[in-house]
Amino acid sequence: MTVSVETTEKSAAPAGEQGGAAQALRPHAEDAFAAELAALAAQDDRPRPARWRLSPWAVATYLLGGELPDGTVITPKYVGPRRIVEVAVTTLATDRALLLLGVPGTAKTWVSEHLAAAVSGDSTLLVQGTAGTPEEAIRYGWNYARLLAHGPSRDALVPSPVMRAMSEGMTARVEELTRIPADVQDTLITILSEKTLPIPELGQEVQAVRGFNLIATANDRDRGVNDLSSALRRRFNTVVLPLPESAEAEVDIVSRRVDQIGRSLDLPAAPEGTDEIRRIVTVFRELRSGVTEDGRTKLKSPSGTLSTAEAISVVTSGLALSAHFGDGVLRPSDVAAGILGAVVRDPAADRVIWQEYLEAVVRERDGWKDFYRACREVSV
Amino acid sequence: MSAGRGRGPLLLGVRHHGPGSARAVRAALDASGPGAVLVEGPPEADALVALAADESMVPPVALLAHVVDEPGRSAFWPLAEFSPEWVAIRWALERDVPVRFIDLPAAHSLALREQDAPEADTGDGNVGNVGDGGDVGGDGGDGARELALRVDPLAVLAGTAGYDDPERWWEDVVEHRGASGDAFAPFEALGEAMGALREEYGDGGHGRDLVREAYMRLQVRAAQREFGDGVAVVCGAWHVPALRAKTAVAADRALLKGLPKVKVDMTWVPWTHRRLARASGYGAGIDSPGWYGHLFGAPDRPVERWMTKVAGLFRGEDRIVSSAHVIEAVRLAETLAAMRGRPLAGLTETTDAIRAVMCEGSDVPLSLVHDRLVVGDVLGEVPDTAPAVPLQRDLTRLQRSLRLKPEALERELELDLRKETDAARSRLLHRLRLLGIGWGEPARSARGTTGTFRETWRLHWEPELSVRVAEAGVWGTTVLAAATARAEADATGAQTLADVTALAERCLLAELPDALPVVMQVLADRAALDADVGHLAQALPALVRSLRYGDVRGTDTRALGEVAAGLAERVFVGLPPACTGLDADAAAEMRGHVDAVHAAVGLLAGDGPAGHRGRWHSVLGVLAGRDSVAGVIRGRCARLLLDDGQLAEGEAARLMGLALSPGTGPAEAAAWIEGFVGGGSGGGLLLVHDERLLALVDGWLTGVPADAFTDVLPLLRRTFSVYEPGVRRTLGELVRRGPSAAGSAAALGAAPAGFAPGLDQGRADAVLPVLRLLLGTDDGGPAGGRDDNDLVGVA
């Protein structure tokens, strides 16, 4: 499938029919693609790093797709530059931690889940990063009943997913690393550089077994939340997942996702909507990249992210507007306010950028007259 | 003699600019110790080859051949430190072994190129990388279209080996391979592979190659007669099978019969890595001369050394890169190479590793690596004893045809651009100035004429200017081509927006239409990204001026007009926010910008869409009415609107009343007055003729508190002291008479002797048609209504 889109609810795995935990709403990657993984493992004769289920080459094939000698077709899990997947897999093979960066909607989580599934056969050793993630979630906690009854011992200790991955030589995952408070983030430093997790209460430590590694994902636009300390950053190899390469791919993602959300909100599907979606995607892409699609005019980029996810929300709210207050057809006036809100984050600087864009690009463009007018109306 | 080798010349097939090939050539030469070295290249350069041993010769350099009378027809053979040819030449010169160039003489190849110019037989692309070297032009470029029709031997071999990228295959098999035991084995293997290819594809679509190879065979035979069998031939791998083939001498001679010929001059010119990186020239353009230079120069562990170099570069740019980073980057690069199945980490792997480990995934610092290391800033040098560059000849020719002698004595030159010779002279001088050859400097005319068709130059030829000409030879072989290339390079490297606009102006003066698109593109890009409205406002007038020059000289300035219109648009959008929260100095500067833009917009309106002037007026209106804008700017905007007839009856008075009302601080109000009537813009007359405004100023002034008065006094003095004495006196008299007196200025006091006390309406009206004709306002409509303001507009 193509690049998946993260919003609050993660998009469903594209091929849920491949057995595994059939009852689950969304099976884990290693279950959903168990057949492919097994076929790869069976035919993989290349050297595997310690405790890897597949060779690095086979992991890359699993993600990028391909056909095996015996004719088994591996579906592509990630559509994007080959280079990115190769660097990511190689990083894990050199026992360096991997940091996947990207704006929302670039399939960071999707890639990290499949990497873990292919490398260790288990994508569930997961720490979800939030502003409230405590140190225990990364190191270990205590079973207080046991602690009180029997005193401190390994039995009273509740290991974190990271600790389990260390002792079993598996791949741990940390989602949204930059949302975790800085002091909690830094507990990773020892784990990543010394490959050990001391337990001072017991005078013991857990040493990482060969095969242990860590994949973290982070949003590179809101770095300001809890920027990584340089000490921690140094311990990661960083791979930036790019936005969809072509406008066509992005339009596809947006309309598919809008369709899904729209159905759950009982919004009418707008048959003529794609033109408007294309326009929104064009505006977002142009402002994001700082150059018009024809590559002839440079533009200033506003401070907002203008991610694919935001384009989706602009379209969805526009659809809701047109359904409830308009004639049910997505029109420029329905999306103008949404676009303005997404673009103008800094009222002073961004407003000038937006107006420049309107005057220099939108006004001159064929067939964009009504869009220009709608934007002028809300911009004043 | 060639130990352990069969009879016949030692054929060393190489890729031009291949570091691995260069190493292998050196090893093979060391092992065989030939009595003579033959190199693929124009034989006219035989006389110049000794210069390669000169101490002051530093690669990259290029052999340049050009037709004697037409420096524009030329071809280059660039040689870098890591070029196999260069290595062979230096090897031979160091050992006093004779060196001969054996390719088809440039006299023929340049003539042939002229013959089939329509087919654009220039750059040879990938083929050139292996086999070609000779007939490739310096002004190539459109040869790329031809390439698809030809066989690319590398692509065929790489495809056979299962590679999709021929360059990478070549690197893996040849350039990245370490030193092996047998110095000749690689050449034999490659020769065989090429032989198989040639059997399959013949000349592969390179008809000219057969002629060249015939000539090479003859030359090799001649060398064998002279030096015995022990000669080594360094040529493109593609040619090896052809040179090995046994053919009849007579057949070769027949092929060479009747070739066209031109008179050709050769010289060495300095070259740069950046030009090596371009696909033009030799045809063997390489993307990464810096990387190749590194591969050639590094004694061992090339990846480790490369990463250390990159780390050094980053540290120099204040980016923290530790040794741990270097270690991890090397590990990642090598593992990547292993995963991709390559014998050694190549440029792709090292770049990926640098991005992931040292650049935090970002491409921004990576571009620095590409620019400084992968391509590199290496500039070659050529000894002074090398023959003169064609640019010098072109200049001499132009000087002769324009009757403009280089004289050491300084003299002035008046040019009337309406005359053809004078216009050509002006272009030449402007182009030379662009090239940094300051022969003529523009001077102020002694006659004091300001017409745009007249130019005055001060000419002064100094001996060191010849050196400048030689240096400028890097840019091209004719003054026009060199100036164009230089202008394009300057535009790309320009620091500020104003630099680019100035450059655009100079391009128009020097008439470099080919450089304009690049300059315009850079200009548009810079304008789009420049957040400082001041810069944009500064750039606009120069651009509009350029438009007018272009009109005078009949240049096509449509692109320029578009850019100017776009620039104006950005100024309109950006100006209002930029005018708020300014201190006195910044406000005064911004007022200057407003004036400049106003003048520029006035000139633009003629050819731009009619909307420009209207939108500018609405911007002025916004500025004039916004309280947060500095007083001097508000005043100025109100005045500009008034002058353009954009303020309704009484609106000026209303604005002034607002600005001078008691709620406004005295200093702010004084600044407003300065903006409205100050600065020698005829404001005095305005006050003389509109008593309402004068009354407002007068009323405000008397109301200023005593303690504030001393503060505003300097500003007021500055405003009113620049008025002409007559205006000042009239104003004074008006004020003394007091605000209560009604009537217009015409009714003031007694009429001067010889004038009637009142206005003779009939006679005054009679003047109006002529006046309208002069002012170009055909529709007398608005003019009739407010004659007071119109008068001011004229002033």
TrEMBL record, chain A:
Residues 98-236 form the ATPase dynein-related AAA domain. Residues 1-26 are annotated as: Disordered. Residues 12-24 have a biased composition (Low complexity). GO terms for molecular function: ATP binding; ATP hydrolysis activity. SUPFAM superfamilies: P-loop containing nucleoside triphosphate hydrolases. InterPro entries: ATPase_dyneun-rel_AAA, CbbQ/NirQ/NorQ/GpvN, P-loop_NTPase. It comes from the Bacteria. This is ATPase. It comes from Streptomyces antnestii.
UniProtKB/TrEMBL annotation, chain B:
InterPro entries: DUF5682 (IPR043737), LolB (IPR050458). It comes from the Bacteria. Residues 125-141 have a biased composition (Gly residues). Residues 117-142 are annotated as: Disordered. It holds the Pfam family DUF5682. This is Uncharacterized protein. It comes from Streptomyces antnestii.
